[in-house]
Design brief:
Helix 4 packs parallel to helix 14, helix 7 runs antiparallel to helix 8 and helix 7 crosses helix 9. This protein folds into 2 domains: about 160 residues, no CATH class; about 400 residues, Alpha/alpha barrel (Glycosyltransferase). The protein contains 14 helices and 21 strands. It has about 550 residues and is of the alpha+beta class. Strand 18 and strand 19 form a beta hairpin. The longest helix is centred in the middle third of the chain and has 21 residues. The protein has a 6-stranded antiparallel sheet. Strands 1-2-3-8-9 form a 5-stranded antiparallel sheet, with no helix packed on it. Strands 14-15-16 form a 3-stranded antiparallel sheet. The radius of gyration is 25 Å and the shape is elongated.
């Protein structure tokens, strides 16, 4: 791809950078710039801290010679333009911002700023001072100083972004603008975590999700593989790096360590669980926290675009131990079917299947375990380094347990809360399609459910709780809104179960939803197709999976 092509894709991404839902930032930087009044405000991005707690500058305003604020007139990945480009804001490395004149000699421009402690300051720009650099220390204190390297700093940031966009996948014309924005999201969400050294973690979002969540890493890697397979492999390697001695993979790797047990929960998470009336807020004994077993599926996807056999063998050893952990340590009632011991381990924290007592036997977990053993069997046959027959036999046994969750009268797979059937009709009941081994009559019933407007045939599919279910809410996280990752898994399930045309139709609807909603948000209202009110924006797995779906639809 030429520099011109990369610049064109960067400009396409820039049309979506509104500084409200998509902040101005830089790969590896913790600084976020948002619109605020007549100018912008600046925050840092930190694990388990709200933006309001991480303010750096409450306001930064550019004023012309008449004292009026110069409006923001254009945003590109590497610069923000004020007053038609008279003044530009950019990065001077990951920990500093630079604001300066586009051309030396312009007179009468003033930069004003206000700090969170109420300090106000300003500096005039002209022949003597063409730019001011704002350096941000680890304690969020800001130092401002005149700078003569504004143009060079902007050029360095532009080169970084052009290198990133040179890797952006090319897709259908009607999807290219959103794909460019989604590729920006993935680049913007690159951070360094102290626990990982210089390794690059693509976090779910710099707005509130600064860490490497295991499940997110899998989905993000699936999208990254189309443009940067090395970075995709890096996400999986980071997710696997901190496996426990017993094989358990942690839920989160963050800048203070890992989240692998209920004892590791941040205070805010415990308070949220208490408000919800959950007994799991303060369990009597530590509860392991992990994420659903899709590691082998993600590994297989990443290796489709670029083989790395020696590296893959190393990762497979970790994945096999993790798969064994589910059966050894998370089969809590010893019936051969592992359970979720905590809602967080499901990835669907707020799903109504967790309204009852724990542990929860869930059809999605059964499906993922079957899929993972089948993938591990295929890897064993490919590399000749493990017993493929043992993996297939365990997949058969798990499938038998999974089919016991089928309710033929209601036409659904149901979950069980501490052995009691859960009535809620949720998207987890569609995940057994992933096995590709369901009886034909069950597949037919699930397809009927997908198209039934009283169940999953919403205006925008697939709602995470059936529209006619008493627990359905179009706005509340996992209790109704559409999530791109669950849609992607249903699409995979339709393909695996012999319905590629239906899979393609749902893929088209999913990318159309992201376009309609204005970006790769965390989740979407299934009635309106718009961003749900409380959903995080510029969300990593939504961006990555949009790219994956767009590439598939463009082939």
């Amino acid at each position: 791809m030429t520099v011109t092509d990369a610049a064109a894709l960067a400009a396409l991404a820039g049309t979506h950078l509104d500084l409200v839902q998509a902040p101005f930032t830089l790969p590896r930087s913790r600084l976020l710039v948002f619109r605020e009044g007549e100018g912008v405000r600046v925050h840092t991005s930190e694990y388990e801290r709200m933006l309001a707690e991480c303010r750096v500058l409450d306001a930064l305003v550019v004023r012309g010679s008449d004292g009026a604020a110069l409006p923001i007139t254009r945003v590109l990945p590497h610069r923000v333009e004020f007053g038609g480009g008279v003044v530009t804001l950019g990065f001077a490395g990951p920990a500093a911002l630079t604001v300066g004149l586009a051309e030396a000699g312009a007179a009468g421009v003033t930069i004003e700023w206000t700090t969170p402690d109420g300090e106000r300051a300003h500096v005039g720009l002209g022949a003597d001072a063409t730019a001011v650099r704002f350096g941000v220390a680890a304690d969020r204190r800001v130092g401002a100083a005149a700078s003569g390297t504004h143009s060079a700093d902007l050029a360095e940031s532009e080169a970084l972004w052009l290198d990133w966009f040179a890797r952006c996948p090319r897709v259908r014309d009607d999807l290219q603008s959103m794909a460019a924005f989604c590729w920006w999201v993935l680049g913007a969400n690159i951070v360094e975590l102290p626990a990982l050294g210089r390794a690059r973690a693509v976090v779910p979002s710099k707005i509130g999700y600064v860490g490497l969540w295991q499940w997110d890493a899998y989905f993000i890697a699936v999208g990254l593989r189309h443009g940067d397979p090395g970075l995709a492999r890096e996400q999986l390697e980071l997710a696997f790096r901190f496996a426990g001695d017993d094989g358990q993979l942690p839920d989160v790797v963050h800048e203070h360590g890992v989240l692998a047990s209920s004892d590791d929960l941040p205070r805010a998470d415990r308070e949220n669980l208490r408000r919800a009336g959950s007994a799991i807020a303060d369990p009597a004994a530590p509860v392991p926290l992990t994420k659903p077993p899709l590691a082998a599926w993600a590994l297989a996807k990443v290796l489709e675009v670029e083989s790395a056999d020696d590296w893959a063998r190393e990762q497979l050893a970790i994945i096999r131990r993790s798969q064994d952990w589910w059966f050894a340590a998370s089969d809590l009632d010893h019936d051969g079917m592992p359970e979720y011991g905590h809602p967080y381990s499901s990835g669907l924290d707020d799903s109504p299947i967790f309204d009852g007592p724990l542990p929860t036997t869930a059809p999605d977990l059964g499906a993922y375990l079957v899929l993972q053993d089948l993938e591990l069997a295929r890897f064993a046959e490919r590399f000749g380094d493990a017993d493929a027959a043992a993996h297939r036999a365990r997949a058969d046994r798990t499938l038998e347990r999974l089919l016991e969750l089928w309710d033929d009268e209601r036409g659904m797979f149901h979950a069980r809360a501490a052995g009691a059937e859960v009535a809620s009709d949720t998207v987890v009941g569609l995940m057994p399609l992933l096995t590709g081994r369901l009886p034909g009559d069950i597949v037919d019933r699930l397809l009927t459910a997908l198209h039934d407007p009283r169940r999953f045939g919403a205006a925008w599919s697939v709602p995470t709780v059936a529209v006619g279910d008493r627990d359905f809410s179009p706005e509340r996280m996992w209790r109704g809104p559409v999530w791109v990752n669950t849609n992607a898994l249903v699409i995979e399930g339709l393909r695996a179960s012999g319905h590629p045309e239906l899979a393609r139709a749902l893929a088209e609807e999913t990318v159309a939803l992201v376009v309609r909603g204005g970006g790769p948000h965390e989740y979407f209202n299934p009635i309106t197709g718009e961003k749900a009110r409380t959903a995080t924006t510029a969300f990593g797995w939504s961006a990555a999976l949009f790219i994956d779906l767009a590439v598939g639809l463009s082939a």
